[in-house]
Amino acid sequence: MALVPSGITKVDRSQWLTYLDTTPTTETPTWAVLGVGITEFAIAYNPQVDTEKWIIEDNARIDHTSNQKQGSVSQKIYKGDPCFEFAHKGLDKLNYITHILEIDRWNGTSEGKYPAKMSDGMIAITQKGGDNAVLEYDLYFNGEPTEGEVTFAGDVPTFAPKSEA
Questions:
Q1: Model-level pTM?
Q2: Which of 17, 34, 54, 88 falls between 20 and 30 A from 154, CA-CA?
């Protein structure tokens, strides 16, 4: 008797992709994959939860009001990597903007389309150098993401927002 339901497939971390727009002030994004020199990256949702306990009840009421998504990057410096080069330009800058593209390559269709979300974002440099020659920075997601899908031409993603029907 099998306890694991059929149809379950292991998803590798390499199938969750994050891209940064290295030309955020232009009309057409230039996407660079985040990953060279990075051994660990996760997005923290930092949920904002309000609680209120009424005097006539024993248990509190809970309201999940927002998320404050961010991810911390510790990137070994590789000259020529577009994400490093772009982030490095943000040294000493305030409100260094970008766009962030999250792609679930593990959940694609047979037509080569993958679910994706695009968010406005900001990079804040936290540290540079050290014995391991790293650039450390935080990515902050700003506002509501735009839901959509991505297709690839080679390694280059093209994002298309979901149409409002």
A1: 0.90
A2: 88
Helix/strand/coil (H/E/C) assignment for every residue in the chain = CCCCCCCCCCCCHHHEEEEEECCCCCCCCCEEECCCCCCCCCCECCEEEEEECCCCCCCCEEEEEEECCEEEEEEECCCCCHHHHHHHCCCCCCCEEEEEEEEEHHHCCCCCCEEEEEEEEEEEEEEEECCCCEEEEEEEEEEEEEEEEEEEECCEEEEEECCCC
Q: What pLDDT shows up at residue 164?
A: 66
pLDDT of 138 higher than 70: yes
User: For residue 53, how far is the Cα from the chain centroid?
Assistant: 35
C-alpha 36/C-alpha 118 separation (Å) is 21
Enter the tokens of residue 78. 């590789």
Mean pLDDT computed over 9-24: 94
Read off the pLDDT band of 116 (50, 70, 90): very high
pLDDT of 46: 96
Report how far residue 153's alpha carbon sits from residue 146's, in angstroms, rounded to the nearest whole number.
21
**Bridge partners, 63 (sequence order):** 50
Distance CA(115)–CA(64), nearest Å, equals 24
Tokens representing 88?
A: 């490095």
CB distance 33 to 155 below 8 Å: yes
